[in-house]
Design goal:
Length: 161
């Protein structure tokens, strides 16, 4: 997925962005890797009522990819596919199809943001923190998803030994 660029810094930025989202990474699963194979019923599980589930984390990370793209392009507010901001309700009737649709939405927002990053004129662009931040955001939530899966599947006792 890495596009060759005349600017080596941009190429490295794209590698970092891509490695946080998908593919193989030395640290463990990426964001996309952490949800690969998760069934929609698993995505609904919460360790406690006021905690987030995997599905909510997927919607949240999709939103922030949209928000960073909007900031880079100076786009208008209110164009995210779901109403609200930051944290969203899962579909009223959760299903396998709805889960797949929301995963596809996350992937689409990732690709759309990547396309905007590819266009950046790095010498003039002053907000590299947005790009590093969104990649770090992916990794942070990938870790949360891994923890939620382990808690749900009863693997915490073996993980602490």
């Amino acid at each position: 997925m890495v596009k060759k660029s005349d600017d080596r810094r941009l190429e490295l930025l794209l590698v970092f962005f891509d490695k946080a989202f998908d593919g193989s990474a030395w640290h463990g699963p990426t964001l996309r890797g952490s949800i690969r194979g998760v069934d929609y019923r698993e995505a609904l599980w919460k360790p406690a009522p006021k905690h987030h589930n995997i599905w909510e984390l997927v919607l949240h990370t999709a939103y922030w990819k949209y928000a960073v793209k909007r900031r880079i392009t100076h786009g208008k507010r209110g164009m995210f596919v779901l109403e609200g901001s930051n944290w969203f309700k899962i579909p009223a009737k959760p299903s396998r199809a709805a889960w797949k649709k929301d995963i596809a939405m996350l992937e689409n927002y990732h690709v759309a943001l990547r396309q905007e990053i590819e266009k950046l004129d790095l010498p003039k662009f002053r907000r590299l923190d947005l790009i590093y931040g969104i990649a770090s955001h992916d990794l942070y939530h990938a870790g949360q998803i891994q923890l939620l899966k382990r808690l749900q599947r009863g693997g915490m006792a073996s993980a602490s030994t």
